[in-house]
Amino acid sequence: MKPSLSARLALLSATVLACSAAPAADNAPLDEARTLAAQLATQLGTALRREMGAAGPEGAVAVCRQLAPELAGTLSRQAGLRLARVSLKPRNPMLGQPDAWEQAVLADFDRRAAAGEKPESIEYHEMVDEPQGRHFRYLKAIPVQPLCLACHGPAESLSAAVRDRLAADYPHDRAVGYAPGQVRGAITVKKRIEGQ
Fold first, then answer.
1. pTM for this prediction
2. For the chain, which terminus, N or C, has the lower number of CB atoms within 10 Å?
3. How many CB atoms lie within 10 A of CB 186?
4. Spatial CA neighbour of 135 closest among 66, 73, 62, 189
5. pLDDT tens across 86-120, in order?
6. What is the pLDDT of residue 63?
């Protein structure tokens, strides 16, 4: 008997979290941010590929819906910062809506990709003074890869099963219409810098 999606997601979550290593305490904020962004991207990519193979694209929608926020939350709590995925065209506006700083950086990412920069290498970081204090901010572009197109490609090219699943799970979805070489969104890291 095939295990349920919830059971497969729980197993995937436990497996990828057990394999991740927390960054060393003496790492600079940029090194820590890069490490965490890479962990989230790798763990989520592994889970997506596995679920695509087991249940197809419509099954993989549940990975992004359930596992991605869980992984980001776990890594955030472990590191004592905020780690999430954001986009100018979020699938779930409750979780993926960028703040003003992130919006400006994401717009710049789109310009950089359109100018020929490889999306997988696009990132940006800076120290930002905010009313709540000084924060290290980091964004790492999420490139559109062929695997992404089954759920994020042009709306007319999505299968009926994927369209139905997206309509049910994401009634306010704006995350379609992408092509390879574009920036789908970014992994964002925000860390409070104490004593400044």
1. 0.84
2. N
3. 26
4. 189
5. 999 999 988 899 999 999 999 999 999 999 999 99
6. 87
pLDDT classification of 194: cutoffs 50, 70, 90: confident
- Under DSSP, is residue 41 helix (H, G, I), strand (E, B) or coil? helix
Tokens of 124: 């940006």
Partner residues linked to 188 by β-bridges: 84, 139
Average pLDDT of the segment spanning 17-38 = 68
Strand order in the sheet with 183-192: 82-86, 183-192, 133-143, 123-130
H-helix or E-strand spanning residue 113? helix 100-114
Average pLDDT, the chain: 87
Dihedral sign of CA atoms 31, 140, 150, 14 in order: positive
**Bridge-partner residues for 140, per DSSP?**
123, 187
